[in-house]
Specification:
UDP N-Acetylglucosamine Acyltransferase, domain 1; 21% helix; alpha/beta; 431 residues
Length: 431
């Protein structure tokens, strides 16, 4: 048996994903497309596989059909292996008639599914973070310190700190205090000397707080005890972690590499576009720890007379006389001549339309799936299977921060235009 055979990973898929709406209008948060080719769930699942952890549950309760489809098509382990990736959607039973009430309650409700797996260690992860971590180092820290719970933490700046759960640890790395999103004096009281975690004096001065990444390693039996202590405890940050600090040995594991919570529209937008920069902070080209996704067997993209700079173009695209800068172009995107795409995420399409289908659409004055001639799109997120006509201008020249179109075909969040999945934008539309 391998060292990590009795480790089971649980990826928390989150609630309704309201912070990522309308991208979560028809899909669960872990199923949101990422970097033109992947989905958010591919990041933690790939981290697990690269860390030799192959028993993985994904917990979700909203719009889980597309997530189920993606996972069943992507992660198939050998029949001679005990590995699996399985979606557990919230289910109502006699004992649990309610939906998941929070992160801890989601784990509480899935415990019956773990009884047959001889689990001694539970690795709890989030489904909406972008980072590459070898969880074996995280687990080794947990085992070597005989901890009951280990929390992965990142050093953070004072301006970031109020958005996180903050921890204080002693010189041995044992966590002695935890506060969820503190403000004012409570925030100041959580400053720590992060040089004891290996940061230089300058780094420690710039990042004097330890923020919880929202990922944990639990001794399974101790977690079961905590979850049984009080059924009203439904959240790890607010209730379970503070209770564990009082009762058990809780250690901190410092993570110093790139980590980004992409659970909001602005964070999601910025993290995606950063991937197309000269030296991205997160590198999808790292062959030593690849990010896996579904094999689609698509043809190479075809580019005719295009001007493309600081961008990523996925497989199966047809771009004809297009200017693209600082953008992500997703799978099967079809973009017509004269179109300009700037600082935007085009998620692409789930299907190729045939020539006859495109001609039929023209007869009905319906745009084809993709982007029509002479359309200009700037600072936008265009979801999958969208039909955008000719001479459309998505520019937000009035710098509107928040907007919902009456027909639900266009939204604006944080000043970023969002065209939701399957929307149709007629010729000549301007916003």
């Amino acid at each position: 048996m391998g060292q990590y055979d009795n480790v089971v990973a649980v990826i928390l898929g989150g609630g309704a994903g309201s912070r990522l709406f309308p991208l979560t209008g028809e899909r669960s948060k872990p199923a949101v497309p990422l970097a033109g080719n992947y989905r958010l769930i591919d990041v933690p699942v790939s981290n697990c596989i690269n860390s030799e952890i192959t028993q993985i549950f994904v917990l979700t309760q909203y719009n889980s059909a597309s997530l189920n489809r993606h996972i069943s098509r992507t992660y198939r382990f050998s029949s001679f292996s005990s590995g699996f990736v399985e979606v557990l959607a919230a289910e109502q039973t006699k004992d649990n008639p309610e939906w998941f009430q929070g992160t801890a309650d989601a784990v509480r409700q899935m415990l019956p599914h773990l009884r047959d797996w001889r689990v001694d260690t539970l690795l709890i992860l989030s489904g909406d973070h972008l980072y590459r971590m070898d969880y074996r180092k995280f687990l080794d820290r947990h085992f070597s310190t005989n901890a009951d719970l280990t929390v992965s933490v990142v050093p953070c700046r004072p301006d970031e700190a109020p958005e996180f759960g903050l921890l204080k640890a002693n010189e041995d790395g044992q966590i002695v205090e935890f506060k969820e999103k503190p403000k004012g004096d409570d925030l100041e009281s959580m400053r720590v000397d992060t040089t004891s975690f290996g940061l230089t004096a300058d780094e420690a001065a710039a990042r004097p707080f330890l923020a919880s990444m929202g990922i944990y390693v639990f001794n399974y039996n101790k977690l079961v005890e905590l979850l049984k202590t009080d059924s009203s405890w439904v959240d790890f940050g607010r209730e379970i972690i503070p209770a564990a600090i009082e009762k058990y040995t809780v250690q901190a594991h410092l993570f110093k590499d790139y980590w980004e919570d992409i659970g909001t529209i602005r964070a999601f937008y910025n993290a995606n576009l950063e991937l197309a920069s000269h030296l991205p902070k997160f590198n999808f080209f790292d062959a030593t720890a690849p990010i896996y996704t579904r094999s689609r067997y698509l043809p190479p993209s075809k580019l005719l007379g295009c001007d493309i700079d600081l961008s990523m173009v996925s497989e199966g695209c047809i771009l004809n006389g297009v200017k693209v800068s600082k953008s992500i172009i997703g799978l099967r995107s079809r973009i017509d001549s004269g179109a300009q795409i700037e600082e935007s995420i085009i998620m692409g399409s789930d299907i190729f339309e045939t020539i006859s289908e495109i001609r039929s659409n023209i007869d009905k004055s319906t745009p084809h799936i993709g982007i029509g001639e002479n359309t200009i799109i700037r600072r936008s997120i265009v979801d999958k299977n969208v039909r955008i006509g000719r001479n459309v201008k998505l520019l937000n020249l009035n710098n509107i921060e928040t907007y919902d179109a009456p027909d639900k075909s266009i939204y604006i969040r944080d000043g970023i235009i969002i065209v939701p999945k399957n929307a149709v934008i007629p010729d000549g539309t301007e916003i």
